[in-house]
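agent> Task received from the user: take the single chain below, predict its 3D structure, and emit structure tokens. No templates, no multimer pairing.
agent> Plan: (1) validate residues, (2) run structure prediction, (3) serialize to tokens, (4) report one or two observations.
agent> Step 1 OK, no nonstandard residues flagged.
tool_call: predict_structure(input=
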Amino acid sequence: MTSWIRRALTKKIARKGPKGKQQIIVIPPNEKLVLMVKFAIAMTLCLTGLEIAYMAFLGQWSHEVFAVISGLVGTVSGVLIGRQA
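)
tool_result: status=success, residues=85
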């Protein structure tokens, strides 16, 4: 799971070198950022399971759990998109 997260958070910058050759500079992500994204994805999966269990046993939709899931998905998406900019 770590490899695709690290790959998604790695920033690549293309620039011209001293002799006009194209150079690609690779900036690896911070370890804390990778761990935070892994934690947020794991919590999203756990909360999704909680929502499924809530619907299976009580037969209702939990708006509170869905709001937390939406917030986490937005946070992870924002980090992945913002890191690439």
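agent> Step 4: summary for the user.
The longest strand covers residues 11-16.
agent> Done.
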